Structure formats: structure tokens, C-alpha cells
Amino acid sequence: MVCSIPGNLPFILKPTLKNFYTLVTESPLDRESRAEYNITITVTDMGTPRLKTEHNITVLVSDVNDNAPAFTQTSYTLSVRENNSPALHIGSVRATDRDEGANAQVTYSLLPPLDAHVPLASLVSINPDNGHLLALRSLDYEALRAFEFRVGAADRGSPALSSQALVRVLVADDNDNAPFVLYPLQNASATCTELVPRAAEAGYLVTKVVAVDGDSGQNSWLSYQLLKATEPGLFGVWAHNGEVRTARLLSERDAAKHKLLVLVKDNGEPPLSASVTLHVLLVDGFSQPYLPAPEAAAADAAPAAPLTVYLVVALASVSSLFLFLVLVFVAVRLCRRGGAASVGRCSVPEGPFPGHLVDVSGTGTLSQSYQYEVCLTGDHETGEFKFLKTVFPKLLVQNIEKLKESPNCRNNFVRIFSYT
């Protein structure tokens, strides 16, 4: 008797005892490739004619956890518009496992971020059962335009197998920023005035409005428009670059001061805008001094700050105190020398010395002619200074002559400085 099976199966019949056979595997089985085999066993006798019989058996291949979960994509790119509502579904990831039962049950989790500075735990979360990703808070394109993280998928086999995929989230810009004017500054304490010569030709560049927008794409495209002017038709604004130019020749009949209101608008939907005020002054030439605005003139005419007044008073006080101390020092020195010999005395003749400054030129101003006289007295060998006096020769000529004729100071009277 002979037993046989088809030859295209990974099994063989192995004889053990007479007329006993064992079905064994000839090569490893893969349940994920083929989980069930229907085998027909044919038994043939050795008689003439030969007779045979057939018997069918079914072999089921049991599962082992030999397959890790596999994501449908190696990386995912998701997009979410900024200013989204919290708990918004932004996308999903999916992984499958070729095993069965618990070996094929997949759970999802967030893995540590690639960039440690990204606060992933406060940005997104994932549903462990279905892989749905729900943004946890409102996102701001200007603060965070994109971020990446990894998602893990693990089965429930023993031991568990896992895999991971990269997820990149792009934050789409929303038109939530109005244009910001860089020049001219609108919060400055003093207004900026542009000077334009009256001889300027048509198309003369007066100034340029510079603005930026924190958004991106068409939301940051800016256009400029002249809304209001003191004299319409005299100035124009180029829509795409913000240049302010003269629209025609200037004349003497045009007002000297002009005020322009320029609108800066982005291309978002809906558009956002900002306005800027320009001050223009027409002058006959750039050599003409700048005329301050009335506000600036009023500020210049305002009284000095209290601190300035205090400094002036303090300086005057210190100067007066210094002069007083010098006079006291001189007086004390003179008193100490009072007991010296009369030979060393310097007699000062009485005369009409002025007690205050007077006009000596007759023109209403003080004369600039001064002479300083020094009387050297005391011991001729030591040459000590005993008396120092400043006089005005044009008024005190007769007194000086008398002082020079004094017997004690005649030889010690020296002129040391003259300024005219």
C-alpha cells in the first residue's frame, strides 16, 4: 500500500510503522501567506488492478506574533489653520498588523519630540485606539509655523512589537495681522516734517511710507492709497511701493504746509489696514531754515524744567560762597599783618571808589578796558603780597596816582596784567 499527497504542499507523508504514515512539514509555514491547507491523501494498494481511496484533511496554521504593526505611510503631513478652536481634529494616522487576535490589535501613542523646545504635550494629542490627532490649543502662525513629532504603533502580542512614523504639522496663515508702519513713526513725540523745494519738478520724491505685515503670502501683500490731502491733486502715492511724489509743478500760490493721510492695506480676506499721517512743508530752498510746527514752538517756549532751575541756583550759591570765603581769607591775612612795622604797610588813599559798575563809554554797555594793579608791600627781600586790588583806570586815575605816590608802596607798585 502506498500513501501520497500532492507535491506542491509544504508537507510530506513520513512512514513510521507498516501501513502507518505521519504528515509532517517540509518547510516553515507562514500563516500570513496561507492560513489553511486542504490536503488530499491518496492510498493505493499493490493489487491488479490497483485500487485506491482518497481522504481529505484540513490543516489550520495557528498565529504567532511575528509581525510588527506597519503604518500606511512612513510620514504624514497635516495642515491646520491658525486660530483654530481647541480640540480640533487635524488628521489621522493608521497602522495595520498582519497577525491576528491580540497580536493584531494596535494602540497608538506620541513619542518624545525631535525638538526638545517644542512643547508637544500642550500642542496635540492622539486617540490610542484609532490614531486620530485633536489640536489641544489655538495655534499662532506667527509664533509657530510648523512642528514635527513621532507616533508609535504597538500590538498587544507577547512580546509586543511596534513601529513608528513621522508626522509634520503645518500651520496655515490667517489674516490676523494689520500692516505696521515703520516710517514715518506715528508714536513719536515730535512729528516728522518732509521739506519740498518749490522748484521741484512733477514726480519729485517727497518721502516713502515703509510698512510690513506679520502674515505671509497674499495676506502680507501691501498696497498704498492717498485718502486725504490738504490740497488734492498736488501729491500722489504709488500703490505698490508707498512712494509719495509731487503730481504737478509747485507754485507760489500753493500753501506752505500740507497734511497727507495715507492708507496701507493688505490683500487678505477680509483685508486689514492702517493709516499714517504725513506733514509736508514747501520751502523756497533747502537753505531756508526749518519752521517748527506750532506744537514744537509752544514746547520751546515752555518754562525750564525745575531741575534746570535748581542747578542754576546751586551753581550761583556755590560761586557766592567761594567768593565770600576768598574775601574772608584775605581779610584775615590783612588783620594778622596789622601788627607789622609801618614800613610794611600799604596806605590806600581815600577816594571816590565806585560801589558798582557803571557805563563808562556812554553807549549803554560796560567798557572792556580793565587794568589790574598789585601793591607789593612788606619785606623787599621776601616780596610777599600784602594787597591785591582791581581798579578801573578810566574812572580812578586820580586815586591810582595818589596810591603810587604813597611812600610805602611807591617802589612796590607793579602792573601785572592789562586786558582791552
TrEMBL record:
Q: Which GO terms describe its molecular function?
A: calcium ion binding
**Where is this protein localized, as stated in its record?**
Membrane
TM annotation in the entry: 309-332
Question: What membrane topology is annotated for this entry?
Answer: Single-pass membrane protein
Which Gene Ontology BP terms does the record give? homophilic cell adhesion via plasma membrane adhesion molecules
One cellular-component annotation, GO: plasma membrane
What keywords tag this UniProt record?
Calcium, Glycoprotein, Membrane, Repeat, Transmembrane, Transmembrane helix
Chief location category: membrane
Q: Name one Pfam family in it.
A: Cadherin_C_2
**Do the record's keywords include Glycoprotein?**
yes
Tell me which SMART domains the record gives.
Answer: CA
Ranges where the Cadherin domain occurs: 11-71, 72-181, 196-296
User: What is the name of this protein?
Assistant: Cadherin domain-containing protein
Organism of derivation: Monodon monoceros
